[in-house]
Amino acid sequence: xxxxxxxxxxxxxxxxxxxxxxxxxxxxxxxxxxxxxxxxxxxxxxxxxxxxxxxxxxxxxxxxxxxxxxxxxxxxxxxxxxxxxxxxxxxxxxxxxxxxxxxxxxxxxxxxxxxxxxxxxxxxxxxxxxxxxxxxxxxxxxxxxxxxxxxxxxxxxxxxxxxxxxxxxxxxxxxxxxxxxxxxxxxxxxxxxxxxxxxxxxxxxxxxxxxxxxxxxxxxxxxxxxxxxxx
Amino acid sequence: xxxxxxxxxxxxxxxxxxxxxxxxxxxxxxxxxxxxxxxxxxxxxxxxxxxxxxxxxxxxxxxxxxxxxxxxxxxxxxxxxxxxxxxxxxxxxxxxxxxxxxxxxxxxxxxxxxxxxxxxxxxxxxxxxxxxxxxxxxxxxxxxxxxxxxxxxxxxxxxxxxxxxxxxxxxxxxxxxxxxxxxxxxxxxxxxxxxxxxxxxxxxxxxxxxxxxxxxxxxxxxxxxxxxxxxxxxxxxxxxxxxxxxxxxxxxxxxxxxxxxxxxxxxxxxxxxxxxxxxxxxxxxxxxxxxxxxxxxxxxxxxxxxxxxxxxxxxxxxxxxxxxxxxxxxxxxxxxxxxxxxxxxxxxxxxxxxxxxxxxxxxxxxxxxxxxxxxxx
Lengths: 231, 377
Fold this sequence. Notes:
The complex is a heterodimer.
Chain A lengths: L5 E12 L6 E12 L3 E5 L6 H8 L7 E6 L2 E4 L8 H8 E4 L11 H11 L4 H14 L15 H13 L5 E5 L7 H18 L2 E5 L11 E6 L2 E5 L1
Parallel strand pairs in A: 3-8, 3-9, 6-7, 7-8
Antiparallel strand pairs in A: 1-2, 1-4, 4-5, 9-10
Chain B lengths: L2 H8 L1 H39 L3 E5 L12 E2 L2 H6 L4 E16 L2 E10 L12 E2 L8 E5 L9 E4 L2 E9 L10 E5 H9 L3 H10 L8 E2 L1 E6 L5 H9 L4 E5 H12 L1 H31 L2 H9 L4 H30 L11 H28 L9
Parallel strand pairs in B: 4-9, 6-8
Antiparallel strand pairs in B: 1-11, 1-12, 2-10, 3-4, 3-11, 5-8, 6-9, 7-8
Helix pairs in contact in B: 1-10, 2-7, 2-8, 2-10, 2-11, 8-10, 8-11, 10-11
């Protein structure tokens, strides 16, 4: 675990869906820090608020209360403090999804390169780095394969490569091992640990998957929108 | 890296099938534009071929195309003597059915005096009419080759030449015979009717009647001024070629023109709705991909570019298919499908505008997709 200042700081975050009697409090006063190089698991039953918290940290869902900081910068404090949230996501946050979410019409290389071209990197440079990343994640031999031709584990590695493309300091993963068997799930988690260590990134993983719990530096439990336990 | 092209390549078979379907629809719309233009072109084809500057007709009529007109045959000599007239020729015009080798043929029969204005300006095959009787020059649309014979009014005519593109306003092919043959065909009474007319003392013997006299003017002559002089004869009316052309397009084929025009508009509207629906479906099929793009930071410009480029590529490919289909099949249409570069270009612009307008709804829908949808939540 790192002693660096947290790259993700969630302070008293709350989120209410709906109004009046129909209002549902999805998150209530959640505090959470994730430091550089740290891999944190977020667990909890369905409806506990895991995805809501992940969406808020990803800056795709606005909180109702509290404060969110990424690194030194306050991102939300009663209102969004950054004008271009997509740019922020592009440059500072990497996403890994439950079902890889690779674009089916791009091959593995271009799926990774796309994230870089969206950030302004020229296509040639982006493809070269994409191939390097695929090699790094031991899936370089499948660089020109379309997603439909990749196995679940290969597709998830390509998705991790895409998440790392712009060298983000924050990596958010939504049940990244749910579609994988135990062995591949551990390989994916080891890769995330390697990335966190080598790139000094903060990794937050939403998961139900007990077989990977030993791969986390820390596991945070959520129940009914509140932090339940830290282990 | 072009996302629109990559997506099209990924589903190329489906995209091509959509383009062919759309091409057929656009082809119908394009054909209607061609038929619309063809009706106008056909209406003016004869008048342009005759290169007449002045049409002298029966007073109070707007003949010979819009209304029936009958004037004595000697009017040609009177018109020929008018100041400014370089040449004049008498013509007759009637619709007739004839027995042709391929069956009953309906045609517009035009009689004229060989060597005088009134005949076709170009012969595609064979020769023009000489002085011999019972010869015929037929437009290619009639399907008669030189040497063929047809039975018209009980007489056997031999086809000596063919023209191209000369049809009546109604689409019937034009056939040319000598004025004398035509006058007999048109005005000579059948023997029993002639005998009855003679018994009643109403004559019926003379057939020297024509439908109009056309005149070509000398270069210095003003058609309106010569027409004014011709109108001074109380039994005659006169139309300049510009007035005749206007009459042909605004009166003779007006209903057909308006009908076709309205049908074309309806077809374009239907095309616009279908194109919009296809673009919308294509966009909604990529809902998760668009959400993922937004989540990883794609700008609105990237999303708009994806939808708009696909709409324009779809429109362009569909329209290319439409042009190919129409140009490959237009010879099979019974009426002229008049499509030139101008019509094709204007229609391309209309289709482009429809694609852009049709993609607006899809773009709005795409921009409303939330990035959370990529997470399945």
